[in-house]
């Protein structure tokens, strides 16, 4: 199993800097023990103008069988069918990927203590692998490496040069060339894509492989056009691990798009949710000055419960059967809708992976019957970007969502829901800031939740809702949720939008304008 890495240089930046980057002296041939054999590092050439490092991996076939117990662990069919005579010692595979990470661990992390400026410097690179198993052929090799900045030469190796009529084997001779990729990036590409092309691993794939994939794929995998194929093959097609990795990669992509931290995007799980559900938090509707003087000892239902009841009632009145819960959080509304057979399809969408995970546990999706499971779908997505899959539903709900967005981003959400998805009915709820004075435990001037970017008065909410309805061909009605205080109104204000114009996008909210709005929101 053989691989070479070559570079060129000048007197100012000699090619032998490759030795510093790899942490391996060009004047020495070194050997390193691995779990399945011995890895040798040597330099066939080392000069100012050109330098080549070679990694030769000698695989111990007996050790490979003993460690894998002869079962082809991780889905390696060759090790299972031909335990001692197979292509593992010669063809680049996960064995070579593991050797790369072990022998060149500092280079893979982009660390060079002797010359710290080198890892971030782009230099001409040429990587050659004489025998690479490629299940998918040269075309797949091109699709995997070309988007990463490589010029790819993948020549199919014939089964037998004496009998060309037999055709090509599943192996290719691979040459990668680039002057836009750092050495650390190149090693990370190889670490992930070698076992992907082989479509097999010599070891059992466990949950920690997801973390390895995300570390090695940082900066390139979230946006790769073949991300799903790469993730599935790298994780040996283990469905649960693949889903976990894809969700985390989507969160990274959204964070990069928004120029935010992942933690900032994935913040939808609130510590006070349980308090809200049990009636001990701020929005319980109990213990307020407004209700203390009613002369009744009857315990009030938590505001969160009354809010869901009001939303369900509005959806029933609209005759909705297929419903979107946009910003579904931990799935409380989805759970309530599932209890009513009139709602035949419920889709919960949220940007937070953690929230969706909790929602899945709350709904017991893993134990749900087939018929019931067919009614519900949980999806990760951002509400400020249009999604064709959100179109065609009877109703959409934005329950306590809009106040979590920065004001400059509301136009993008507005177009996503009212301009692109255009459901027949849209239900929006949001806190009434005027009612905050009735919360005895809420300090003056504070919002109800630390992540609220704003809280509107009734007049502000009505002005926004009326403007949205006018722009997109809807009418809007307003309803109180919770006790309607004669002075400050209800704790939650709800708007029910009903589409009056045909199901088509309005001129003033065209996709071009939406793109401009998204750019403005990002800049803000």
Helix content: 25-40%
Shape: elongated
Question: What class would the helix/strand composition place it in?
Answer: alpha/beta
Low-confidence segments, given as residue ranges, are 70-79, 270-281, 283-297, 506-511
Count of distinct strands: 14
Radius of gyration: 29 Å
What integer is the average pLDDT? 83
Largest sheet: 7 strands, antiparallel
Count, helices: 20
Distance separating the two termini: 52 Å
- What is the strand content? 15-25%
> Order of strands in the sheet with the most strands?
2-3-4-1-5-7-6
Q: How would you briefly describe this protein structure?
A:
The chain is of the alpha/beta class and 524 residues long. The protein contains 20 helices and 14 strands. It is elongated and about 85 Å long.
Write structural notes for this entry.
With 524 residues, the chain is of the alpha/beta class. Helices cover 36% and strands 20% of the residues. It has 20 helices and 14 strands. It has helices spanning 17-22, 61-68, 77-81, 94-103, 105-109, 137-145, 183-198, 208-216, 227-234, 239-258, 262-265, 273-278, 289-292, 303-318, 332-338, 353-363, 370-373, 410-421, 458-472, 511-523; strands spanning 2-8, 30-34, 37-46, 50-59, 125-133, 151-158, 168-178, 322-326, 345-350, 376-380, 395-399, 425-431, 474-481, 492-499. Strands 2-3-4-1-5-7-6 form a seven-stranded antiparallel β-sheet. The chain has a seven-stranded mixed β-sheet with strand order 10-9-8-11-12-14-13, sandwiched between helices. Helix 7 (183-198) crosses helix 9 (227-234) and helix 18 runs antiparallel to helix 20 (511-523). The longest helix has 20 residues, at 239-258. The radius of gyration is 29 Å and the shape is elongated. Mean pLDDT is 83; it is low at 70-79, 270-281, 283-297 and 506-511.
């Amino acid at each position: 199993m053989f691989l070479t890495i070559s570079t060129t240089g000048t007197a100012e930046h000699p090619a032998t800097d490759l030795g510093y980057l790899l942490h391996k002296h060009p004047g020495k041939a070194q050997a390193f023990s691995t779990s399945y054999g011995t890895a040798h590092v040597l330099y066939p050439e080392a000069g100012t103008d050109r330098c080549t490092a070679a990694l030769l991996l000698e695989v111990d076939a007996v050790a490979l069988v003993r460690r894998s117990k002869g079962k082809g662990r991780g889905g390696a069919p060759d090790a299972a069918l031909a335990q001692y005579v197979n292509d593992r010692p010669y063809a680049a595979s996960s064995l070579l990927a593991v050797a790369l990470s072990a022998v060149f661990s500092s280079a893979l992390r982009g660390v060079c203590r002797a010359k710290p400026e080198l890892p971030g410097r782009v230099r001409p690179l040429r990587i050659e692998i004489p025998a690479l198993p490629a299940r998918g052929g040269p075309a797949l090799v091109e699709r995997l490496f070309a988007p990463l900045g490589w010029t790819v030469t993948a020549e199919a190796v014939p089964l037998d040069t004496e009998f060309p009529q037999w055709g090509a084997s599943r192996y290719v001779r691979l040459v990668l060339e680039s002057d836009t990729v750092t050495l650390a990036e190149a090693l990370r590409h190889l670490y992930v894509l070698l076992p992907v092309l082989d479509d097999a691993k010599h070891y059992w794939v466990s949950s920690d492989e997801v973390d390895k994939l995300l570390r090695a794929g940082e900066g390139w995998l979230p946006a790769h056009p073949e991300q799903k194929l790469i993730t599935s093959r790298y994780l040996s097609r283990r469905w649960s691990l693949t889903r976990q990795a894809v969700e985390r990669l989507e969160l990274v992509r959204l964070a990069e798009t928004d120029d935010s931290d992942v933690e900032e995007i994935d913040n939808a799980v609130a510590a006070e949710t349980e308090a809200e559900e049990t009636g001990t938090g701020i929005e319980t509707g109990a213990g307020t000055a407004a209700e203390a003087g009613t002369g009744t000892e009857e315990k009030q239902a938590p505001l969160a419960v009354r809010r869901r009841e009001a939303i369900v009632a509005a959806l029933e009145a609209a005759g909705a059967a297929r419903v979107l819960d946009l910003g579904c959080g931990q799935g409380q509304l989805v759970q309530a809708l599932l209890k009513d057979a009139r709602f035949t399809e419920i889709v919960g969408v949220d940007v937070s992976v953690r929230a969706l995970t909790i929602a899945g546990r709350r709904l017991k999706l893993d134990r749900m019957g087939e018929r019931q499971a067919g009614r519900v779908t949980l999806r990760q997505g951002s509400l400020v970007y249009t999604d064709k899959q959100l179109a065609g539903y009877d109703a959409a709900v934005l329950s306590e969502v809009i106040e979590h967005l920065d004001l400059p981003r509301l136009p993008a959400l507005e177009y996503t829901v009212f301009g692109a998805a255009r459901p027949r009915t849209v239900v929006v709820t949001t806190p009434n800031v005027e009612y905050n004075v009735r919360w005895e435990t809420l300090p003056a001037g504070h919002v109800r939740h630390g992540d609220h970017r704003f809280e509107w008065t009734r007049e502000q909410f009505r002005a926004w809702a009326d403007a949205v309805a006018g722009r997109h061909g809807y009418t809007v009605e307003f309803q109180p949720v919770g006790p309607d205080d004669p002075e400050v109104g209800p704790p939650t204000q709800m708007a029910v939008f009903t589409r009056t114009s045909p199901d088509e996008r309005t001129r003033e909210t065209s996709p071009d304008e939406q793109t401009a709005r998204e750019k403005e929101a990002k800049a803000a």
